[in-house]
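Z., the sequence and structure:
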Amino acid sequence: MSRAAPSAWAEEAAVRRLVRCNPLHGNKLETRADLQDAVRALHAPLLPWYSESGARVRLGVGGVHYASAAAEMESFTRPLWGLAPLAAGGGAFEGLDLVLSGLDHGTNLDHPDYWGDVGRHDQRMVEMAGLSQALLLAPETFWAPLPDAVKRRLAAWMRSINAHPTADNNWLFFRVLTNLALRRVGEDWSREAVEEALDRLDTFHIADGYYRDGKWYQLDYYTPIGMHFYGLMLAQLAPDLFPDHAARFRERARRFAEDFQFWFADSGAAIPFGRSMTYRFVQGAFWAACAFAGEAVLPWGRIKGLLLRHLRWWANQPIADRDGILTIGYAYPNLLVSEAYNAPGSPYWALKTFLVAALPEDHPFWTAEEEDTEALPDGPRLSSAGGFALRREPGEALMLTGGQDGREHRCSDAKYGRFAYSAAFGFSVASDAWAPDRPERSAVDSGLMVSRDGLVWQSRCRITEAGTDQGLVWGRWQPDDGLSIETWLDFAGPGWHVRLHRIDTDAPLHVAEGGFAVDRTGDGHISPEDWFEIEPGRGFVRTRSALSGLLDLSGERQASVIRAAPNTNLLFPRTFFPRLAGVVPAGRSVLVTAVFAVPDPEAMASPPVLTDRFRAVAHAVGWSGETRAS
């Protein structure tokens, strides 16, 4: 393998310099005091951007689907997810006077910085949750100092959430938290509104702690960071008021934790999957909520390790701009991965993970010794409720999925329609909405594309039937009446997984399938030839940091390695991914693909090992089981 050019080291040095702008960088993130310092460090860069009244924080000019008043309120309230636990744990922070002034002027309809009246399905309902947490956890800091007139006005403004319908999804919890906060500070609240919301939320639970988000069957991070997070807060703060709901929230969290621990690699990196990736280390907020609720869903040392390693991983990513303000993106600034509801202050929902800062030093979370990563279970683990197969390997956590229907969200094919999601390799989104015969722009890694004419392509998405079948992950994609593609997925040895596609089409069909995208840092305009191994039915790429490849086990599809358009991948600004492409005739065809990827360029891709359960399903589908040599 060719050694890196000098430019590679310069590129990496530049990234290291930008990592130093991350407010978490350099913090050991081991102790309660470390996390308190982290909250202060994340909040400090915002201080110059508070309006004079304190009610709004103006962090940028990027657009969002709601009005600027709500967006600037969002930038005010979301840091409270960290500041409130900090205050509850006895920690002070700079800027409290601005926050208290903001609570006054933001609810004063005669002030230019008034947050605005609350209406139906209003973003302000979302941001009330941050205010509510502040009143629930630290009323002596955020409520007691306010003049009586301001208290009455703030309470009336928050109570208006009961007068309008929320979105029929996780937003119902915002009504719950707001009413509990009003009760906490002695203001009028509506038990009826809370009970109605909790009863409706109960209907979203599927099994084993997995929730759909309202009518949409999206089992993503909104299950742990939304449904469980808020449910555990209620279970800890109001168990006497709603004992049945509190008990169910605790039990569901215990069941869900058995799966969710597999979503994290030993490095602390979580599997990117689904929408709202710009919330970043909120991925670990479930563990913080379990600790806050006193729920030992796993051994305390394991919970502590999962949470703190996760924060440490994020501390070494270039996720902030030069003045330390968190950017929209994932492992680097990237608007391509954003949602229509991501405003400049949206990333600060990540601070929900600092809920553990409210816990006293003698809490079991803080007194436990952090468990070594060697104690983490490897799997594989099959989740029938979630429709996932999960496995952990050195430097990697991997999820196989039959797909979900994410049609409401930008780049839904990438966020919900891929076959595999990886903590080591991320996923990629398209750089162009329409990319005829330009695979580098569509960037369909770990996924499938089809075309009737070889020019206009569709990427696998809107999966409405998926789950598990005979021990395998399964999903059906039916983009029109003339085409149906069923896929079965299984692990096949270290670094490997296999995909079985049964294609029924009423006309010849162009098919293209992608493998994992790998970082090509250090690669110039012309790539070293020995990075690529391309033969009929076999394509591998070996970069300075990883190895990724595809094998066509069932035919003679043409292999290639795609140089993806820049900034399409969540983890790496520049990537390669292997691809198999071919044409299947009208009627029924079966394609079988072996996929290999490891974050180790020196690794050897030993042959995949097909399980008996995979062979049984493949035989039933119509594949003889004869494989190509690796």
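The domain at 381-621 is CATH 2.70.98 (Beta-galactosidase; Chain A, domain 5). The chain has two domains: 23-375, 381-621.

Let me know what you think.
H.
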